Amino acid sequence: MTDETAERTLPPIAISAFAGPFDLLLHLIRVNQVSITDIPIAEITEQYTAYLDTMRELDLDIASEYVAMAAELIYIKSRMLLPRPPGAPEESPLEDLARRLAEYERYKNAAETFHEVDALRAGLWPRPPTTPPPSPDGETLEVSLFDLIGAFRQATERYRLAHPAALEIRHQRFSVREKMEQLLARLDEKRTLPLLDFFGEMQFRAEAVTAFLAVLELIRLGVARAFQREAFGEIHVTRTDVPFTVVDVRDTYR
Amino acid sequence: MEEIKESVAEGAPAEEPRPRESSVRKIRPAVEALLFSSSRPVRETELSEVLEATPGAVAAALASLAEEAEASARGIRLENVAGGWRYVTRPEFDSLLRRFHEVTERSRLSLAALETLAIIAYRQPITLPEIQEIRGVNSSSVLTTLLEKKLVTTAGRKPVVGTPFLYRTTRDFLVRFGLNELDDLPKPEELDEDLAATIEGEGETSSTGTTGESSPASAESDAAAEEADEEEP
Question: B136 and A21 in contact (C-beta within 8 Å)?
């Protein structure tokens, strides 16, 4: 029964077309041609749950937030059926919902404007990133913490593939200090090296973690710098001019 | 974009002393070369620094270059975006360029990503829980997408329980959406008008007249036509 009414009154729109429960609610409000501040809660609740039922029948995953909103709507509806107890706060739960919907709608409209502007501007082609001809070192991009973490994940993934689960009972201890010394030594030798090469030298997972911490520490100290030559390119570590030697490491980190 | 003339016309006379014709003519080709060699927008301060020219002379040279690009039927134009200047192609050549460079697909931001981006743009700095409160839905994977695309970045942590990360928009965001600075974001009232226009004109799919001030007006008709050819995600 409910399916028939649902099919008759609701256009068939997949729930994936909605950005969330607020979006679906706004859609229902729009379709019913009512105002946010004057929601016919009984009708809207019924249509909302009918949508979820249809989705369930189609065996589609429904994000928990949609179910939570259904519960909230039913709660609001029940509250409105009951007389307000004397001394209860003025604001009805419906007003609160209307306020949240109005705020959400503001950003949804902004997103629509963004979409239009983005589509228009996608047709403007800037100059492609250039590497100045004479110096092969070129322009470098600063690397963010997220890029570093990404590189580390790549390294551990490589490690995992290269080292299938084996019997290993020795407990190894690695120190950040030791790894800082190791990296400094490598940097003194080569000045710049690919970050993955350094991680690749590590034999154990815990060792790679320690090495990663050592990289972060040297960057924090300003002794090393991470960069990439292009977006998503290989991350390199390089030595800066900040004076800091292996001896300093030993003195500072005991 | 077409604000070019206005913004420079306002900016140039404010500089005193008035730049001399000869000095402007001298640095003009250099400015063009610098912009031609850069993919990112170059700031006027950077230009005056490297050219050892007065800000007034740089502004005048830019105005002259922009004017020339507009006046003589050129395939490129000078754009004032994210506090700098860069050359971009004219929108009417988009399909031609895509054909030539064999670009078929273009990365589009999903509705959810645009919503999240809008919330961050207007409410920055803002935390993930605050974003989710407004959107009513989990937004962490969408946020990751925006971080990967470098449209948003972290801005420290909020001193509340759990010290969640704060997020803000980046310069890439300004460039992508053609804003000179964050204050150029359309005001919420304008967005409401936008919506009113959309509702009134429902049924017409064209974006004409609904994009408001944030979109390049002169390019609108051509680009809107282009846009109609493209498939909506």
Answer: yes
